[in-house]
Amino acid sequence: MSTKQFQFKLVLLGESAVGKSSLVLRFVKDQFDDYRESTIGAAFLTQTVTLEDQTTVKFEIWDTAGQERYKSLAPMYYRNANCAVVVYDITQSASLDKARNWVRELQRQADPSIVIALCGNKADLSARRQVSEEEAKKYADEEGLMWAETSAKTGEGVTEIFTAIAKKLPLTAPASRSGAARGTTAARSGVDLNKQSTAQGQNEPCNC
Amino acid sequence: MEKAIKLLLRSSDELLRVLETYSIPINDLENRSVSNNADSSESINESRRRRIVAVVTHKDEENDWEEGSVFILKNKLFSSPYQDEFEIDRVLPVHGDFTITMAQVNRADLGVSVQLPSESALNQSRSGLRLHITPGGESEPLDLFTYDVQGLKNVLAECRRLRELAGMLTYIHTDNISLMACVDLSPETQTYSWLAPYVSNNVHIPPFTSVFPNIQETHRPLFTRLSPASAGTPGEDGKDVITIRDDWIRSRARNECRKARARLHLRIGTFNVNGKMPSQDLSVWVRSTVNEKKDFASVLPPLNEISPFSIGENNPIDEQVEDTLQTTSSSFSYSSTASTNAVHSPSPTASSFSTAPSVFTATPSATTVQTENSVLPSPASSTSVYSPIIVETEPVLVPTLNADQTDPSDPDMLILGFQELDLSAEALIYSTSTVREDAWCTAIFAALGEKGGMYEKLASKQLVGMLIIIIVKKSLKSCFSNIMTSSAGVGLMGYMGNKGGTAIRLTFTPPTTLIPALDNILSHESTKSGEPSTPTATSPKLDFQPSPSSQPSHESHGIKNLGSTVLTFVCSHLAAFDEMVAQRNTDYHSLIKKFVFDSSSAVSGVVDAESQEMPGQFESSPQHHPQEIQEKFSVFETDTLFWMGDLNYRIDLPDQEVRTLLSSEHWSDHGKYLLKYDQLKNSIENKHAFDMFSEHEITHLPTYRFSPGVAVDSLGYDVKRKPAWTDRILYVHSPLTTQIQPVTYASHREISFSDHQPVSAEFALDVDLFDKHQIHATATSLFRQVYGMEEQQERSKLRLSENTVDFGDLFYGREKTYTLSIQNTGKVPVAFRFLPLDAESEIHPRWLKISRMTGLLLPKELIEITMTTIVDNDVASELNLGPRNLNHTLILHSVMGKDLFVVVSATYHYTCFANELSRLTRLPGSIRALRGPEDLLHEDRAINAPREVMRLVNWMMTTSHSVDCLFLNRADQDIVHRLRECLDTGEDFPYSHEAKDSTVLVAFGETLLQLLDSLTECIVSTSLHAQCVSPVSRDEAFEVLDSFPQATVNVWISVTAFLHYVVQTSPDPESKAQRIATVFAPVFFGLFRKDSNPSASSATSTPAITPLQSQAFILHFIQ
């Protein structure tokens, strides 16, 4: 195979009900539910993006619970993440404040090389908009974040933002992970999968 | 028939149509040769040609696709002609060029010279239809014949529909379903990957049918065998799912196929004969000492209770189980298999249904917090709760294996181990002589007396001085097969064969004579319940609801070929001398490596190659030719392992102390003190050797060393050798496949010609009664249900009954349970496990126990997880130092999928128990009044003694009467609980000094003892122990107090002053002082605490202070 394959851990953060799970559902399955139950826990999904140069990037997506009571668990999911999508709802200005908190937390506590994308969801409801594009864009620029507006309902901008993230990830030189976790997640993060397949023999089942 | 077909299908797949057909032979010649056979072969011929055409589909509603396939099934070879048992012949996906055509044919056209089967009997039209099936791929077309015109039309219609569906989708063309590699395709693409598990040649038979479960391994909780993982870092999910799956298949197949248990009575003996020949009657050693009326009858359920005639509306077994549950208020009656006491519950009712009732059935409601049990948690429940198996039902115990009408207490097997059989120099070099073995056998049979005729020697193995002999009832001899032996020498300085061991491994297959009785019971049970006799169907409270396809069909419950159980026995002689404990441990570890049983050396009691059974396992797959396989088994690849011998472990106390403790009347429970210093017990506890082995309670005196003609002490022990329990009988077993209840454990002083006394132990061993073919079929069927889990594309869905659990108030010594249900609401099987937050943390806080840490659920299945809060001393010592509000998020990880969160909370109420003494003196008031854990007085302002201790002592001092049994008898725990509550809250005791109620006073005494015992460090800390050894007078003892911390001195003085008063007012002060000192010695000096364990910390064999020394120190103050 001449194409390169990479695998990255991506975490979705943001206030409850901004549409994190819907965004993932649209991205992974190209589906949309009008009524989704609130996520209690963290869902794990994968989706692969193929770039123009035929490089494929496989995202290991952790969709986290937005509810405040589970906030203390978020670090478990964003540790070792290569990229984070912080989602707010353009019809709820308070959700952008929450997003700012998440960004701040990520900047302080996550891997320093983490790629953060700020994502204004529910773009289809722009009639009820409370967060202007300018405001969000300005904030994103100040903090050096990627930014886009999306609609999980219509699909607008969804694939684009994930593709944009894929392009921004360090595809040439896989960063060595700091605070490496055990198991495959760490081993896989940002690793060329072609190489990994040859090394699999060493990964014998542990008998402990 | 449909039922039988559904057994083959996964629950995610649907059976749409069934058509009965017959294959049209291609080779006429072959057919003719068959036809030449006698008429009797016709029905066989019929079933051999019968083919079932089944149309099966797999739907994915979420992604809105459906794929269909035609399965060609044939009757299973060797299956009963009276019941349907199929295997999959071919799998033909309905896609591509798949076609079915039909044509009307005459029989003559078929070129078939036999009469087509059942033609007349079925009274159907003489003309049939011929089907021609062209598979979609490149495989061979197929011709079939059927009479069922309507059925064929239905099949054709269904296939047409499926063809159209297949045509609508773009599909990847795949021939011959070697689709294992198609996993990377997205689920929307048509793959037919769901068919992969049915294509049997492609499916690798998983290791559970070819690898032995090692009981060492299976003794460890499953969750500890999974890859390290935490929230957001799922670990090696792909491997974990297989580990969980295999464990699930093993347990579930066994639990579904176990129809009942049969009991074997084992008598095991060990005897170091010191080179002597038998010169005394051995009957006390070899003959059952079981008092049938007293001990044994309570273990064995009375015959009439499980007689089919007495089973009425209420199942007496269920009732008994209920009773057991009610009497054992702590629901963790099976908390840890590693703990002897927990498993072998002393309750006779519990032991007669040896699988302890599951926690789930003890909790009737799924959503309410259960009643509080104000009991102190038992030591067993403070260890991690672990349930390796779910037993949905209590299998019937078939009462006896007694083929002959003899005394049921006569052991079925007699296993005797000898050491130092031959001390002669030649024996060490080379010996094939069986002279000594023969002499001992003669003596054994002589000792059996009139019963001797019932028995026969089955096997023996000798290595120099070590010999193991197995004697069995003649009537059961044919039940034993595959007898293999092994021996190994160990030890120092080339003394090969001086120390070491011999071992025998054998297979026990219950006699077929049990089958009629079993059938009787089982058939009665099924008519009683009026529905198919699945084990779970009769149980009122299910802990899961099996999907219909996973249940064994009603018709096949009969047992035809009983599965077997593997038993292994080891006799060993380990390194001698007091200080050689490390060498003994090393000997054990080399022996377990050196013992190898080679199947090619097997001596078969019965010529039955097929009975080459795997322990606790299914028979090897039919392609295997067991007789050709040379397999090697370790000593742990067995269902049960008994280990006997002169293990030579000694007691780590000074010689004089041992003798005094043994002979002193004040040390009535001297065994408890002495065994605390027993090297074997400590080696087991510290996992240095024999870990996981259990031993029945020792109530006999040490068995070493006696010697005629040498100087002896008052108990007859050689004055030159420290008495010790050198001769031991240990056991370990697979809890899934067998149950063991120890019945007796005794030494026999009457036999006195050796320097050791012989030891015997009796066991009731319950083995499973199951059909070995059925268990294999069940495992295969279960495997098919879960096949491909590690690669599945469909999303797993688990639903929790609650996402938050609030336990409310949490008090010391009270336990609360909460039942959480987990349901698989998706379409694919889900394996789950609880994960810690991160690699460093625990899965659950110490105050919470979870009944199951891992599991596997088929679609729609539901399992109940019991969470229990237990505040014992360990937990309280931690919680007392933290905030009141307890909060923890449990992470339930569905393997290959989501993490679900369960927030568990409780409000802890501080207790004065389990604190440091110095902390109690810094409390500003009662501990409950603390605003927070740091709300303490400054060290300089600490009060001089903890008010809780003083309140108890003062109350007892001011009470106007004395009670002789104070500190000596067990108190009413309800009163103790109330007193503790008063200490915690600062409220006044609700008891009057004047009321002469001895139970209250005794409760005060016990509360004081419990409080002192609960302190995180004992009153006299370990560093002070050495100083307490030396004082020879009261004055010197008081001088030692100068080095004690102030609070300790004050407690010491107050308590001993009160004890002094108690002693003085006793009619026999001398004896009273002695007895009270023995009670307080372990409490003051923490003799029974884990950290005081001498062998744990260092190699020094004697503790800083011994029981007698600590007792002597206390006596200086109270006498």
Automatic annotation (TrEMBL), chain A:
UniProt GO cellular component terms: endosome; plasma membrane
Membrane topology, from the record: Lipid-anchor
PROSITE patterns listed in its UniProt record: RAB (PS51419), RAS (PS51421), RHO (PS51420)
Gene3D superfamilies linked: P-loop containing nucleotide triphosphate hydrolases
InterPro entries xref list: P-loop_NTPase (IPR027417), Small_GTP-bd (IPR005225), Small_GTPase (IPR001806)
Any one GO MF annotation of this record: GTPase activity
Pfam family, one: Ras
Database matches in SUPFAM superfamilies: P-loop containing nucleoside triphosphate hydrolases
A Gene Ontology BP annotation from the UniProt entry: vesicle organization
Keyword Transport annotated: yes
Compositionally biased residues, Low complexity: 175-190
Membrane spanning residue stretches: none
Polar residues biased stretches: 194-208
Region (Disordered): 173-208
Keywords recorded for this protein, A-Z: Cell membrane, GTP-binding, Lipoprotein, Membrane, Nucleotide-binding, Prenylation, Protein transport, Transport
Cellular compartment(s): Cell membrane
Listed name of the protein: GTP-binding protein RAB5
Native source organism of the sequence: Dendrothele bispora (strain CBS 962.96)
Taxonomic placement: Eukaryota, Fungi, Dikarya, Basidiomycota, Agaricomycotina
Automatic annotation (TrEMBL), chain B:
Domain of life: Eukaryota
Domain Rho-GAP residue range list: 943-1113
Molecular function GO terms recorded: phosphatidylinositol-4,5-bisphosphate 5-phosphatase activity
InterPro entries: Endo/exonu/phosph_ase_sf, Ig-like_fold, IP5, IPPc, OCRL-1_2_ASH, Rho_GTPase_activation_prot, RhoGAP_dom
Pfam family name, one: RhoGAP
GO cellular component, one term: early endosome membrane
Protein's cellular compartments: Cytoplasmic vesicle, Phagosome membrane; Early endosome membrane
Domain Inositol polyphosphate-related phosphatase residues, every copy: 365-771
Compositional bias annotation for Low complexity: 327-350
Keywords recorded for this protein, A-Z: Cytoplasmic vesicle, Endosome
Gene Ontology terms: biological process: phosphatidylinositol dephosphorylation; signal transduction
Extent of Polar residues compositional bias: 529-539
Renumbered residue ranges of the record's region Disordered: 326-350, 524-559
Chief localization: membrane
Protein name: DNase I-like protein
Organism in which the protein naturally occurs: Dendrothele bispora (strain CBS 962.96)
